[in-house]
Structures are given as structure tokens and as C-alpha cells.
């Protein structure tokens, strides 16, 4: 017999958790603002490179070269290692105290340096095979440039993995602002040093200048790690090498990491599969997809990553202490917040894809045609935005419950389905890079739906009724937002390809502001509880500032 239907029987909605256990909206806001800063700088980094190098052969090569160590970053730094370490580290603090957690961090840090240094050396040696595997459509000169750039940037994985370990320790001790801002230092370092070194090597910004940009990536990775060290010292941690790896905590992390390598990085694995297909579509599609994915990640990073970052250590502590009532309530609340924050972004990106791409990227060597091609990918990527954001919370809940194999098996099916959809959309239907973006969005949505169903079976009750009520209200508010976006696109931005930059920017800004206000007014009138909660938290913060 299956679980009870939330709408007819089964347990009633859980009472709210205690104040100490409640998902920290303030912390999520801090992380969201920090990630927003990082995403803006990352976008700035990409558009500067696009203006300097165009979106043809050179940036295709750089995109694939950076994507190879970036995949390992998602598998280790921000995927398996990060989630597994934070889960185990948080449990160790809750059950054994800080001293035991510091010892665990020493062991994991030492192991990380040794293993990832070895992986870096192997990666540099095997770069030609990796490039051929991920970009089989590149010709000889384009592939050779990609191999050189890959070898330069490969040590990035070691630097960013150490940064992720430090971030996990700080998050587990409820320090969120500094780690979230660390990636901004990566972007600043890579932009400034990359442009300066690139100009020094080649003032015309040809292939040699890309090598300066690659070195700048390493400088940025080092800054991302180093900027967090003072905060780590303030919470009482000092690193001491520890080679005693026969430890229950280390074993727990390694047990979690295997399945997590697949489960936590399905999106990036599928993006790499898309790269194989895109490399065969000529010069441009590889970077168009990268640019569109970067823009789609703006709201995902601000909202989805922020909620997932704050939720993981909290859910892990709840699971470790057996507080499943609060666990279920906070998980449901986190997913509802993810939908509230990303559904309006989804609608806006779909309706205004061309003018957004034009305002941001149509400069220098990046022309209107390229902006339109990238906008086509953005529109399809945005379809999966809400699924991505909710997955950031939901997948972490499985890790907190030590159900690591469930996301892994779902990810297996997702990779296989992505290959099928890529072939169908690009080869069968001829949708080129747009079909690759749609395939990725379909995978994110199907992953979320399947994992939601499995989590509901695991917990018996998951407040599905309140989730559906929220989605109904957001549909109404979203329809109003879409209407405003259509009017703005029709009257203010119809000539986006040839329109001067400043009038176009003003028209786009006005459309986004009016559409956002309209959405908030309608959602407030419909009494969306999560929105009222956010507004109340903001009002309390304002009152505290006035009182001080």
C-alpha cells in the first residue's frame, strides 16, 4: 500500500520547528546577496572575454578547456566532496563536539591535497585525450589551443577544492557570508589578472592572450581559497597535516562521495555531453550555450544555491538528532521558497531572452546575430530553472538522511535520457544548440519530480497540498508578469538588435521593474505565505536598523 495522499489522509501538517532549528532566512539572504555579487562578476568576466575575443573559435576553445577542470570542481569541490564533508562534519559537531570535527578536517584536508595533486598531474598528461573526448568536432588548430589551455588551468581543481572544504567548515559553524563572497574574489582575480596578462602577451587579443586568461583563472582560484582563511582561524581552527585516514569520519565521507560524484553533478555531466554535440555544430554554439547557461545560473545561484547552502548543515543536524518533524517541515519550506523565487525569473528569462542577451553581450566582437543565437538557448534553459533550484534543497535532504544511493540511481537514468533527448532534438528535429538546452531543462525537471516522489515515500508526508496551493497562486501572478514582459518587449524592445545601448537598457530595466512589482502585488494580494514571511523578515530587519 502506497503512502497516504496528503490531501485526504495521513498526518496533518507539521508544527513549525523551534526558532533555533528554523531554516535561517537571514542566512539565506546573506548567501543570496553574496552569490548575486559573484554571479554578476562572473557574468562580467564572461562578457569582457566575449567582447575581446568574440564567440567563435577562441572562446569555444577556452570554454571547453575550462570546462574540464570545472567538471572536476563540481564532482569534488562543489559536488561530492562538499556535500559529503558538510554532512559528516555537521554530524560530528552535533554528536562529538568541535575538537573531533577539527581532527576530521585535518585528515580530510591532507587527503584532499594528496589525491587532487595526483589527479592534476594525470590530467595535465592526458589533456589531449580529454579534449578529443569532450570536443571531437574541433579541428586540429582549435583542439591544440584547447589542450594548451586545459593544461594551464588544470591545477584550478586543487585550489577550488580546498576552498570548498573551508567553506563547508564555515557553513557548519553558521558562518555564511565570507564563504559565499569567496567566489567573487575568484572572479575579480581572474578578470583583472586575465585581462592584464592577456594584453601583455597579445595586445590584439588573439590566441596567445587566452593563455593569460587561463593563468588568471589560477590566480582567481587561489584568492577564493585564501580569502576564507582568516574567518577559519577566527572560529578556532588551525590546520595540522594528519595522515591517519583509518577514521570513521573519513570512511563516512568516502562512502558518501561515490554515489554523490554522479548524483550531485548530473547537470554538469549533461552539460559536458551537450559539449560533445555542440562541438560538431561549428564555431560558436559551445560558447552560446555557455553564455546562456551562465545567465540561467544567475537566479539559480542567488536563490537555489543560497537555500541549499543554508539547508544542508541544518538538515544534517536534524537527521542526526532524529528530529524528523522539523526535518520534513524545513525541507518542504525550502522547496516552496525555491519555487517562489525562481518561477518569476523563469518567465522573465523566457519572455525577454533576446533583449537581455543583447544588453549584456552585444559589444565588441559579439554581434546581434550571436546574441540572438545565445538567447535561443537561454529561453530553453530557463524552462528547467525551478527544477534546478528545488533540487539544490531536495538532493541535500537525501544526503542528510544517508540515502545517497537514491539520487545516484536517478542520475544514471538522467544521463541516459539526456543522450537520447540530445539526439532527438538536435539530429532528428534539427534544433541545433537550442535542442541541447531544452534537453538539459527536461532532465532537471524530471529529476526533481522523481526525487520528490521518492522523498515523499520516504517521509510518508511532505506537505504536497501546500506546495500545490503555492504553485496555483504563482501561476496567476506569473501570468500578470508575463503580460507585462510581453508589452515591454512589444513596445520598448521590438528593435533590440539595432537599438542603441542606453535606450535598450532603459527599456529593459523599466520592463523588469514593472513586471517584478506587478508580480509582487498580485502574489501579496493572493496571500502567498512564503512571500509574507520574506516581507516580514525584511521589515523586522529595517526596524532593528532604525532602533540602532
Provide a brief overview of the structure:
With 548 residues, this protein is an all-alpha fold. The chain contains 21 helices and no strands.
Would you give an account of this structure?
Helices cover 81% and strands 0% of the residues. By secondary structure, it is mainly alpha-helical. It has 21 helices and no strands. It is globular and about 65 Å long. Residues 1-23 have low confidence and may be disordered. It folds into two domains: 25-462, no CATH class; 463-548, no CATH class.
SSE inventory with pairings:
Elements: H1 25-53, H2 57-96, H3 98-125, H4 127-134, H5 140-153, H6 156-172, H7 177-201, H8 207-226, H9 229-234, H10 248-263, H11 266-278, H12 285-320, H13 324-351, H14 353-361, H15 368-382, H16 385-400, H17 405-428, H18 432-459, H19 464-491, H20 501-525, H21 529-547
Helix pairs in contact: 1-7, 1-12, 2-3, 2-5, 2-6, 2-10, 2-11, 2-12, 3-6, 4-5, 5-8, 6-7, 6-8, 7-8, 10-17, 11-17, 11-18, 12-13, 12-15, 12-16, 12-18, 13-15, 13-16, 13-19, 14-15, 15-18, 16-18, 17-18, 19-20
Amino acid at each position: 500500500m502506497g503512502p497516504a495522499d496528503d490531501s485526504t489522509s495521513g498526518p496533518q501538517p507539521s508544527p513549525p520547528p523551534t526558532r533555533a532549528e528554523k531554516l535561517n532566512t537571514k542566512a539565506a539572504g546573506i548567501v543570496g546577496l553574496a552569490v548575486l555579487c559573484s554571479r554578476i562578476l562572473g557574468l562580467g568576466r564572461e562578457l569582457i572575454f566575449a567582447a575581446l575575443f568574440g564567440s567563435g573559435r577562441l572562446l569555444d576553445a577556452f570554454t571547453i578547456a575550462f570546462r574540464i577542470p570545472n567538471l572536476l570542481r563540481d564532482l569534488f569541490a562543489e559536488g561530492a566532496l562538499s556535500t559529503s564533508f558538510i554532512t559528516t562534519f555537521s554530524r560530528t559537531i552535533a554528536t562529538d563536539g568541535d575538537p573531533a570535527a577539527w581532527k576530521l578536517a585535518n585528515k580530510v584536508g591532507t587527503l584532499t591535497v594528496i589525491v587532487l595533486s595526483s589527479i592534476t598531474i594525470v590530467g595535465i598528461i592526458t589533456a589531449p585525450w580529454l579534449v578529443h573526448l569532450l570536443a571531437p568536432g574541433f579541428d586540429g588548430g582549435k583542439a591544440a589551443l584547447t589542450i594548451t589551455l586545459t593544461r594551464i588551468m588544470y591545477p584550478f581543481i586543487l585550489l577550488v577544492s580546498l576552498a570548498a572544504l573551508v567553506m563547508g567548515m564555515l557553513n557548519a559553524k553558521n558562518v555564511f557570508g565570507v564563504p559565499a563572497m569567496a567566489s567573487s574574489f575568484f572572479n575579480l582575480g581572474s578578470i583583472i589578472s586575465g585581462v592584464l596578462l592577456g594584453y601583455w602577451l597579445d595586445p590584439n587579443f588573439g590566441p596567445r592572450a587566452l593563455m593569460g586568461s587561463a593563468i588568471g583563472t589560477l590566480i582567481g582560484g587561489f584568492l577564493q581559497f585564501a580569502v576564507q582563511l582568516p574567518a577559519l582561524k577566527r572560529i578556532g581552527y588551525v590546520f595540522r597535516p594528519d595522515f591517519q585516514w583509518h577514521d570513521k569520519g573519513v570512511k563516512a565521507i568516502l562512502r558518501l562521495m561515490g554515489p554523490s560524484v554522479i548524483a550531485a553533478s548530473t547537470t554538469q555531466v549533461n552539460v559536458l555531453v551537450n559539449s560533445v554535440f555542440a562541438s560538431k555544430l561549428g564555431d560558436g554554439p559551445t560558447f552560446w550555450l555557455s553564455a546562456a547557461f551562465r545567465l540561467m545560473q544567475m537566479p539559480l545561484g542567488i536563490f537555489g544555491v543560497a537555500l541549499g547552502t543554508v539547508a544542508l548543515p541544518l538538515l544534517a543536524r536534524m537527521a542526526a538528532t532524529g528530529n524528523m518533524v522539523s526535518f520534513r517541515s524545513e525541507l518542504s519550506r525550502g522547496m516552496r521558497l525555491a519555487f517562489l523565487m525562481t518561477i518569476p525569473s523563469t518567465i522573465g528569462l523566457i519572455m525577454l531572452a533576446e533583449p537581455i542577451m543583447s544588453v549584456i553581450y552585444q559589444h565588441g566582437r559579439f554581434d546581434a546575430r550571436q546574441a540572438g543565437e545565445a538567447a535561443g538557448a537561454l529561453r530553453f534553459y530557463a524552462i528547467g530553472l525551478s527544477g534546478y533550484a528545488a533540487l539544490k534543497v531536495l538532493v541535500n535532504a537525501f544526503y542528510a538522511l544517508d540515502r545517497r544511493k537514491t539520487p545516484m540511481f536517478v542520475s544514471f537514468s538522467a544521463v541516459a535520457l539526456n543522450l537520447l533527448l540530445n539526439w532527438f532534438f538536435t539530429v532528428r528535429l534539427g534544433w541545433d544548440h537550442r535542442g541541447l538546452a531544452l534537453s538539459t531543462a527536461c532532465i532537471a525537471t524530471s529529476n526533481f519530480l522523481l526525487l520528490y516522489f521518492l522523498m515523499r515515500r520516504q517521509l510518508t508526508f511532505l506537505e504536497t497540498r501546500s506546495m500545490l496551493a503555492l504553485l496555483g497562486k504563482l501561476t496567476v501572478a506569473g501570468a500578470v508578469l508575463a503580460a507585462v514582459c510581453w508589452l515591454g518587449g512589444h513596445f520598448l524592445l521590438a528593435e533590440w538588435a539595432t537599438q542603441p545601448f542606453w535606450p535598450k537598457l532603459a527599456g529593459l530595466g523599466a520592463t523588469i521593474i514593472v513586471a517584478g512589482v506587478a508580480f509582487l502585488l498580485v502574489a501579496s494580494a493572493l496571500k502567498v505565505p512564503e512571500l509574507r514571511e520574506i516581507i516580514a523578515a525584511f521589515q523586522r530587519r529595517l526596524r532593528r536598523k532604525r532602533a540602532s
